Amino acid sequence: MTPSAPGSGRPTPATTPTDDVTARTGSRRATRPSALALALVAVMVAVTACTAGGDGDDGDGGTRANSPRTLRVLASSELADMEPVLEEAHKATGVTVRPTYAGTLDAVEQIASGAAEKSYDAVWLSSNDYLRLRPDTAKKITGETPIMTSPVALGLRPGAVAGLGWDPAKVTWSQIHQAVADKKLGYGMTDPARSNSGFSALVSIASGLSGAQSALTEKDVAAATPKLKEFFGGQKLTSGSSGWLATAWSRRTDVDALINYESVLLNSAEKLTVVRPADGVVTADYPFTLLTSASPDAKQAAASLTAHLRTPSAQRMITNRTLRRPVVPGVELAAPLTADQRRELPFPGSRSVADGLLDAYENKLRRPSRTVYVLDTSGSMEGERLTRLRSALAELTGDFRDRETVTLMPFGSAVKQGEVRTYTVDPAAPQTAIDAMRAQAGGLSASGGTAIYSSLKEAYEHLGTASDDDTFTSIVLMTDGENTDGEPATAFDSFYRGQSPAQQRTPVFPILFGDSDRTELDHIASLTGGRLFDATKGSLDGAFEEIRGYQ
């Protein structure tokens, strides 16, 4: 019988055969491969190769390689903090890891579609739970080796803990739900459709509030739905990435908590009280997993690498540097981690349950989105650029959620008032709004100059004083040039700073496209608490798709 990882209910064999794998779950309208996964892989970091010594023991149970070897790895974005550990692994084994970072669920999309095997030898995700839900992709991986663990947890500002009168060691999901339902607690969480931490949090909450004792079923989800709707009514921040979520949260005085992996919360710039709910958690076990398409040399290199990463010295380095939990018994936890155990909450028992849970979150449970798309249709957009914009918007409409309100606001030398349209996706007839948006997108025409700041001001005025408690509100700015008409940047800055705190919580997400000015757009994102998305290195539809995680 294999031992369990500390803080996790999962076994931790050195190599565990995997019977089945899955693709990313998605909403009922998400029938195409993710544009982000296929076109916008975020960052590539190469760990520089160097020659290694001869065969022999590395002094800590690992094997020293006799020649340099390289592994191309598709990895969860949060694993960027493992670079120092991988540098030490290279010194010990001669294995160079060349990771390409992507969101976990988008990486799973690449595995399911077959795109991953064309570019990578292995995948290293925060969890393979998604993979296990889909047997038809089992042939794409050969095995997995858990490296470390981190459970989903709640991080609170210390003042919030005192105000709630909680003992952090004894808090349950039911207590958290009650505090949210009583409007005593607001929180931020990543988007479950695009982030493994978000989906793991969704499963944790659904399992904790349903009281399920075995694999989560549709009946469990249905029984917990009233409480889940109350719980997600308290979500005030959403994000496609943990990093941006933490930054956005630091700007908000009305949001007391974050739901994320324990390691992410403990590494926060602001000291948080981290609560692992006493009634159970869902835990990421970060399995290093080979693709069946990997060469024999790559498989040998992976064996050397994983053997080293599970040595006591490597496990100590991992827990001390990343604040994740070791999977090897006897390795002491880093100082902020506590050793008391938590039950592993049940994961959905089938892909249909996982799909249903995610669809319910997207279209029923979470607060709806309200977004103004400020679209540059100036004269410089004529031709291929306008064609790309029309196509990207048509593609985007297939991803809109029920109850979502979308405004298309084209501009040139000023906002083209006669073309401003607002649509709400009616759950009873969602296609009506979608078809209307596609028709408007297809009819966009190019003319005039580029009035960026005046148009942004009108977008804020259009949103008005909508309560942040009702919707996730945001503005998306797409422009292919610099500001040439209307008010200057200084006027917009003054306008924004004169808005109420509630209005200032609406971020602008600019898209770098064509000849737009990065410095100008970066300033807009920084001022409003948004994030810049770059469509000059990828596709415009990919940038729009990536922004969906922040709406």
What does this structure look like?
- It is built from 21 helices and 19 strands.
- It is an alpha/beta fold.
- The chain folds into three domains: 35-148 and 285-326, Periplasmic binding protein-like II (D-Maltodextrin-Binding Protein, domain 2), CATH 3.40.190; 151-283 and 346-361, Periplasmic binding protein-like II (D-Maltodextrin-Binding Protein, domain 2), CATH 3.40.190; 368-550, von Willebrand factor, type A domain (Rossmann fold), CATH 3.40.50.
- Strands 6, 7, 8, 9, 10, 11 and 13 form a seven-stranded mixed beta sheet that branches. It has a six-stranded mixed beta sheet with strand order 1-3-2-4-12-5. Strands 16-15-14-17-18-19 form a six-stranded mixed beta sheet, with helices on both faces.
- α20 links the parallel β18 (508-512) and β19 (533-534).
- It is globular, with a radius of gyration of 24 Å.
- The relative contact order is 0.13.
- Mean pLDDT is 86; it is low at 1-67.
Note the topology.
Layout: H1 35-39, E1 43-44, E2 69-76, H2 83-93, E3 95-102, H3 104-113, H4 116-119, E4 122-124, H5 129-132, E5 141-146, E6 148-156, H6 158-164, H7 173-181, E7 187-190, H8 196-210, H9 218-232, E8 235-239, H10 242-250, E9 257-261, H11 262-266, E10 273-275, E11 283-284, E12 287-291, H12 296-309, H13 312-322, E13 325-326, H14 351-365, E14 369-376, H15 384-396, E15 405-411, E16 421-424, H16 430-442, H17 452-463, E17 472-479, H18 489-497, H19 501-504, E18 508-512, H20 518-528, E19 533-534, H21 540-547
Parallel strand pairs: 2-3, 2-4, 7-8, 7-9, 14-15, 14-17, 17-18, 18-19
Antiparallel strand pairs: 1-3, 4-12, 5-12, 6-9, 6-10, 6-11, 6-13, 15-16
